[in-house]
Amino acid sequence: MIKLAPFESCTGCTACMNSCSHNAIVMAEDAEGFIFPHINGNKCVECGLCMRVCPVLNTPIITNATKPNVFAVWSLKDRTVSSSGGAFSAFARNVLEADGVVFGATLGTNLLCYHREIHMIEELEVLRGSKYVQSELRDTFFKVKAYLKEGKNVLFTGTPCQVDGLYRYLRRNYDNLLTLDLVCHGVPSNTLFHSYLLKLEDLKKVKISMFEFRRRNGWGFASAISDRGKLEPIYDIENLYMYAFDKAVLFRKSCYACPYARLPRVGDCSIADFWGIGRHGKSFKHNVLKGVSLVLANNAKGINAVQNLQESFVEERTLDEALAENYNIIHPSPLHPMRDKIIAAFLDSSRSLKSINKEFELIDNSLKERVKEYASRYPVSYTHLRAHETGRNLVCRLLLEKKKKKKKDTSLKKQKKQK
To answer: With the CA atoms of 199, 200, 206 and 207 taken in that order, what torsion angle do they form, in degrees rounded to the nearest 10?
Structure first.
């Protein structure tokens, strides 16, 4: 008898569905919008392949380094149009320039997050930027395998469970496959994200056509929306989804016991923001305001990929520094005691964002958090605020930096008018 992964442990990686040649498995949403495999008993021949490829039912065997090589990276071409340093784009450029194929998550025109393929550098825009929602994989694994068999170079980027799901589906190593696993906090569902968007539209009286989870012109968490083509930052109650995300209250249940939040990591490389670079041991004498990517090269293929990055800043750093402010590299997010109730509130069409925050107090109004929120509105990086700085000094310095920038911008405008 076929028994797939337990409900609490299933990651929705689709390895079972893509492996079934009888199309006996479909992915369907549960009450919270998360996708799970369902077997059609009329089509199933009980061959057991779905069970053999399931990462949950078969203990992960990861042979990557327990002490990976660590690099600070940014792409000279992509840094200012990326959420962080543009490391993903740098890897993707190499693959695309070699006539390869890149797979990653995108937000479609209906703001549904799903994986898609690109073949040209000009298409990179649709895959850039952080997406804090679980991407639908659909038949991605099937397509990846087809390209690999053709001899194409393939880059696959996804959460660690998606990367491992791909490996299990392929059931063999391919020299022409490069994988990047994201240092993941956890994933909300597409359904929950869309429920939030409806509440946000009601609050702002707009029809949202674009959404950015993080701005791409520097480090910060200011989300942005558009209803007429121009992105407008959102803050406070309007950005309640990201406040809830930061408190780890919206995630799939399996995320809270993630077996991939550890060393060794599952991908050839792991990518993240390099939070706290230069604050833990070795100094970092470079401008970080535009973002710095953290890359862990987990095996020889990963190291080779980093060494071959073109038009990129690459500097080797220490593992201790990488772990200092990147909790989720080796820890899953802790389960919030109100997780079920908060998700239910977001999914309840009768609840407003204000009523949700009033009940669960998701927005932290402490001085530290308000400074972070304030910093996200301006081109300063609160993730690199000076160590041991008092709250009062911090606020004063941020205001001074804002004043200096305003003065500089005014001066530049005057110069342009004079010309």
So the answer is: -70
Q: Provide the residue count of the chain.
A: 419
Spatial CB neighbours of 188, under 8 Å, sequence gap ≥ 6: 132, 133, 134, 241, 245, 250, 251, 252
- The pTM is what? 0.90
CB 74 within 8 A of CB 273: no
66 CB burial (10 A radius; 0-12, 13-18, 19+): exposed
Give the pLDDT of residue 384. Answer: 44
- Report the pLDDT value the prediction gives residue 403, as an integer from 0 to 100: 65
The CA-to-CA distance between both ends of the chain, in Å, stands at 79
Spatial contact of 346 and 195, defined as CB atoms under 8 Å apart: yes
Please report, for residues 186, 388, 395, 398, 406, the alpha-carbon distance to residue 392 in angstroms, rounded to integers and kept in the order given: 34, 12, 5, 10, 21
Q: What are the residues facing 234 on neighbouring strands?
A: 223
β-strand pairing of 154-158 with 177-182: parallel
- pLDDT band (50, 70, 90) for residue 328: very high
Going by pLDDT thresholds of 50, 70 and 90, the confidence category of residue 402 is low
